[in-house]
Amino acid sequence: MLEPGFLGGAYLWVKSAHVIFVVFWMAGMFMLPRYLVYHQEGLGDQAEEARWIDRENKLRRIILTPAMLAVWVLGLALAVNAGLFAGTEGLGWLHAKLLIVVLLSGYHGWAVGYARKLAAGRPTLPNRRLRMMNEVPALATVLIVALVIVKPF
């Protein structure tokens, strides 16, 4: 069954690509905070620091940022297709999902910024709090999946 809207026969392809890039983005979002913990614990060892800086940069350049951009472009196309800006009823779940994705994108930016702080040798969080920050992507994933599958409002 095709979703009505401007995507027409491309709808399932766009939806498939969106899900694929969500998986890539979330894989990176699970990895980067863990990298930050290890990087921070390795501060003071120049060789170790250099390895973590390289890993974080590659993860950001090759996976995280391209996947996030694809998620946004494809997701917005799907949202428009579903009638987000046309006043379609019953899309409260989509508004909530988009809010969480905006927050997750902000977290992505924070994590990249914190990687840059660590690269400059300026950590600002205690290790325990940094470890707790690892849970943000998992919580966002749980909420987003529940909203998309259950569509509670």
What does this 3D model show about the protein?
Helix content is 77%, strand content 0%. It has 153 residues and is mainly alpha-helical. The chain has one domain. Helix 1 runs parallel beside helix 3, helix 1 runs antiparallel to helix 4 and helix 2 runs antiparallel to helix 3 (92-119). It starts with 10 loop residues before the first helix and ends with a helix. The mean pLDDT is 96.
Strand content: under 5%
* Total strands: 0
**Helix segment count?**
5
State the domain count.
1
What's this entry about, in short?
With about 150 residues, the chain is mostly helical.
List the helices and strands and how they pair.
Elements: H1 11-41, H2 46-82, H3 92-119, H4 127-133, H5 136-150
List key phrases describing it.
mainly alpha, 5 helices
